[in-house]
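Chapter review: from sequence to fold.
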Amino acid sequence: MAGFDPALAPGTLFAGRYQIIEEAGRGGMGIVYKALDTTINERIALKILAPEIADDATGMERFRRELKSARQVTHANVVRVHDLGQAEGIAYLTMEFAPGQTLRSVLGMAGRLNPQTAVEYARQICDGLAAAHRAGIIHRDLKPQNLMVDDRHRLRIMDFGIARPLAGSGPTREGAMIGTPAYMAPEQVEGRDVDGRTDLYALGVILFEMTTGRLPFEAESNRAMARRRLESAAPSPASINPAIPASLDALILRCLVKEPSARPASAEALGVALAEIAAEIDPAAPAHPSVLRPTPSAALRSRRAPSAAVAAGLIILAALGAYLFIFRGSGPPPPAGWTTRLAVLPLVDGSPGRDQAVLCDGMTHGLRGKLAAAGGLKIISEYSSNQFPGSPTGLAEIGRTLGARHILTGSLNIHDGMLTAEFALGDAQTGAEIWKRPYGGKVGDYFAIQALIADDVGERLAAFRTVKVAPTPSAADPASLEAYTDYLMGRRFEARYRDGDAAADFEDAAKLYRGALAHDARYTPALRGLGDLHEARFVKAGDPTDQALMLENYRNAFETNPALPDSMIAMGWSYFYQQNQEEAARYFKRARDAAPEQAPVLLSVGAYLRSIGLYEKAVVYLERAGEKSRETDPLSTNPAFQLAGCRGFLGQAAEAERILRGLGPAGPSQIRVRILLARQLLAQRKTAEARAELEAIGNPSALASTLRRAYDLNRLWLEAASGNGAEALRLIRASDRPFGYEIVNAYCLLGRKEEALASIRDGIDRGFLVVKDYLYRYPYLIGNKILDVLRADPRFRKILAKQKDLDTRLNAICAGL
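The token string follows.
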């Protein structure tokens, strides 16, 4: 078969029976086509096998034996395999045709799924696996790429009976590694015997990815990734996404344990556990996974009645009336000022293929921006509102949690070049639906429809608007929908890169941002996004190329929209990284003056002042940012987190601890909060409590690099504070940040003054180059009581005097802030 090109053109009749409709995909096994079986007049999937597989006579014989068993599996959640054949010198496989898209495509668009949907999909996978396992068939290569989701949300498993034959010659080659490294169970990595629990491990990885948007184990190579699961425990999914229920978090981790005997005993057992969790998430859910009804086509919709998809999307407005009236009578009083606040919840994707998540997110994002830009209403932030995607929670609870009396929900349907949308406005105080309206037009009318919806909502809430809320400057709509889609997807991959450091996520984000700019070279958010992306990598790795690209894109963003506070902030950070604090302070002041009541602006100014060591000034802004954030971003912990850090730098560790404890259940579940809390406890010499916080994090090797470094630095400080000098020194030698605050504190606790002084000087000289922050500023040096052992040393007094002079100059530069 040397030189053979297996590509088949549409219309080709292959093997005298299968008429090619179109190519459906390519992979390691060969090419998959959608085809018509002319003998029975049905669509099928035709897989043309790659020559290296077809030429392996022993492997093909094993293939036939496996498929003979696999095709006996008949189940609604399994794509049935028909036959293995050969024609025209080409080996091929025929399978049942499964319409829809792969779960990999769904996750690529959505990022992650809400826990309710993830559990629904996992229950269907369990049903399919159970049927196959009863027939003695193990999948061995379960992954999102071979899970199909149709327009009714039915999930089907593909490629049963295929993974094992690819291992090589021999009936069952001993020690063969079969599968995809990211989803392989430890026993597969080690070449041990596998059984049904091997598939349950893969399902655990898939559940982890569906609920968090990332893999439990990530590494630079597939083999390194496969090995990591042998050496490390998976991190808690809830530590990445706090919306995951504790029961689901525990079940996912149980699927991911190394020993098969500790996993659920069978697919049936796992399905039962998932059903219990589904009932916990939504007590009204059916006892068995349900398949959603197909959405009517756009041509059948009436402008007078909502579609089935919209009815599902707006169920929180209709199904919980009794609860709302009970809550009104017995619940806490509504938050002060809530009548002027509006929450726009994430739109439901009502498209037939459920494949328009990006444009749903974009419509939601754009509506928030346009409603805020109009003034008169306070719009709840994206972060807080997005905690309720398609939520079954009652409006009263959402309203009180978000501090908003009015809740806007809706659905978007894009099909055959047409866009239809329906929106409803609910009153969290009365539980009543006070407004509902359909919209429609061509997909190209996306931004015009978005503007019309914003105008209608603003008009409907005219009585609740207040002149005290000024209009918010915002970026103009992009020149095309393609630019908007690329920008939105770029944001998703940028967020993934910031969380996980994966180079592939960086490249995907950069490609998408550049794609947006190819459609609209002056689209300000895409320019700012590309600048932010390069800033993130510059801070992580310090590459001057990233700095140059960051500065270029920030400058371009400012020039396209100089009145936008966000653009001014970008320029402020540009000059900060160039260590030109006069210009940096000027731009941050301009942003403050342009939007003095906006929490994100106040937070950015506070973060800048913290970065240059003006902690007392920073505290003022961070406290104001926290006050404003409680009005429009009540679920965000970022202002409190930054404020606690500043209090710690000022030597106010007890106050920092109080702030962090005040975050409640949402705070300590976040790893970065636990690490900062451990730091404040160590500053107060509460070593036992600090140790408990660090141990509660779990497996540190599973942390992203930035968090792992912070964890390790706290750990060495803890060992020094606990009297374990030898271990503390070992950890110090292993650190790549010899000038870290924690290392200096450890040296002081161990009585090693020379090393402490050397580290302080090192931090002052090159700390900015490495960590992009100014270290050992005067307020920190005088506020840290652990440094008292150095105060009599003339070398320390000289450092202190120099840093005090710098503090005076910086305060003069920032006098207007």
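Two observations follow directly from the output. Residues 165-177, 288-330 have pLDDT under 50 and may be disordered. The radius of gyration is 29 Å.
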